[in-house]
Amino acid sequence: MHEFAKRDLPYAEDLGRAFRAFSVRGIVIGENHDLDAERLEAALEQEGPGELVLPHRAPIMVSVASYRFEEPEREERIQEFEIEFIEAGLAVAPTPRTNTAGVVESKADAALAATRERFGKVFTLDEETGAAIQRVATVARSAADAISTAFEFLKAGQAASEEIADYARKVDEFKRDVSGSIVDAAAMAGTLQDRLDDLLSLPLAPLNVYRRLADVVSFGANLADPGLETNARRSFVRNQTALVDLVGQAATMVRARALARVTFESSSDAAALRDEIAAELSAAIVVASDSLAYGSASALRALRTAVIRDLDARSARLPARIVYSVPYQVPAIVIAQRLYGDVAREAEIVARNRPLIRHPGRIPYGTPLEVLADG
Q1: Nearest 5°: CA angle at 3, between 2 and 9?
Q2: Distance in angstroms (rounded) separating the CA atoms of residues 265 and 263
Q3: What DSSP letter does each residue of 139-159 carry, written as one string?
Q4: Is 179 helix (H, G, I), strand (E, B) or coil?
Q5: What is the side-by-side strand order in the sheet with 78-87?
Q6: Residues 154 and 171: beta-carbon distance below 8 Å
Q7: Phi-psi bin for 324: left (phi > 0), alpha (psi -120 to 50), beta?
Q8: SS3 69
Q9: What sign does the CA torsion over 146, 150, 156, 161 have?
């Protein structure tokens, strides 16, 4: 509205409509409601606009103005939320992209430091006899054996290199000197964590490291029961439990870091491993919380959130993996041309479906091929 001195009649100028706002309320319910709520929050925290689809309105690009989650008053598997959206309009400048993989790396460092600090507080040999110290050393040596076993599988088929030989020497040195190194709990924890983390600095595929360390995560499951309930047994069990938790949690953290370095082919692959590592981190959080290691639990939660955000952000830019049913007997090269307009991708189709394709020149009618939906 424009008004001027000595002018009786103002005039109105149409500045266009105001932005539209949308308020959405809902609940997250189920056994994994806390994890699902974290995924929702991670999606809301992503930079840039997204498409909002409501039951009675056409899809619209929106930005998140605000949101809040309301904790249940009782122990219920439910969490309420309220989100305020505003229409995104047209961007006038490029939106910077967060280095989500870098955030995972930093959160993994923080989680490793938190668990190392916790281990230094609970692991002590003050009440142990010489024989008991040797039993604790045996457990530590078993942890090194688990790491060594994973490494031996990983290096199989790899060309000999100075880095691989140096890593093998470091693991052997730890196993040889473990009786002396367990006296300094923090130093021993750092060495075990470093041997796990160093796997990612070797010329090895990050996805292979991720898969092989799954066995190390479960370290301690087959350790023998120490026997009768005595003061010596309780002290030994405390130290053994601290060692098992340290190794298992460190392996989980390194697995999370490995996924930040994996280049995925499809959004389906990224989503599957996101769910797997998120469940593993959730289990580690429970273990840390049950042992009153609240600092470790908090660092693990931060790592879990970072991993979910990283894999969600990267999978959003990847093609989905779908099933293509062959309409009639046809060579793989024809399917590559039909789906992608590129006969060179025949090899990709054959490699992805090796168990189903007996001969690339004759793929039978009805064969369900797994392909990427980027054609």
Answers
A1: 105
A2: 7
A3: HHHHHHHHHHHHHHHHHTTSP
A4: helix
A5: 21-29, 78-87, 57-70, 50-54
A6: no
A7: beta
A8: strand
A9: negative
Reduced DSSP (H G I as helix, E B as strand, rest coil) percent helix, strand, coil of the chain, to 5: 55, 15, 30
Q: What is the pLDDT of residue 348?
A: 86
- What is the CATH code of the structural domain delimited by 321-372? 3.10.350
Alpha-carbon Rg for the chain, nearest whole angstrom, is: 28
Residue 254: what residue type? Answer: V
Note the pLDDT of residue 47: 85
6 dihedral zone (left: phi>0; alpha: psi -120 to 50; beta)? left
pLDDT along the chain (375 residues), means of 10: 78 80 88 85 87 80 90 75 87 71 95 91 75 79 84 73 85 80 83 90 90 89 64 77 90 95 90 94 91 90 95 87 87 87 88 88 89 73
Which SS3 state, helix, strand or coil, does residue 58 take?
strand
Which helix H or strand E contains 37, and what residues bound it? helix 33-45
Q: How many CB atoms lie within 10 A of CB 51?
A: 9
Number of residues assigned to the chain: 375
- List of long-range contacts for 325-328, beta carbons under 8 Å, 24+ apart: 325/366, 325/367, 325/368, 325/369, 326/363, 326/364, 326/365, 326/366, 326/367, 326/369, 327/365, 328/365
48 Ramachandran zone, left/alpha/beta (phi>0; psi -120 to 50): left
Whole-number Å distance between alpha carbons of 30 and 359? 46
> Cα separation of 215 and 103, whole Å?
26
Structure tokens at 327: 């309409």
The string of DSSP letters for 258-306 reads: HHTT---S-HHHHHHHHHHHHHHHHHHHHHHHHTT-HHHHHHHHHHHHH
d(CA 25, CA 339): 41
Q: Which two tokens stand for residue 215?
A: 């066995």
Please give the single-letter amino acid code of residue 219: F
Which pLDDT does position 203 carry in this prediction?
85
Structure tokens at 68: 């809040």
State the Cα–Cα distance between residues 375 and 221, nearest whole angstrom: 46
Write the DSSP assignment of 189-220 as a string of letters: HHHHHHHHHGGGGSSS-HHHHHHHTHHHHTTT
**Residue the block writes with tokens 């797994």:** 370
Reduced to 3 states, what is the DSSP secondary structure of residue 68?
strand
* pLDDT score recorded for residue 239: 84
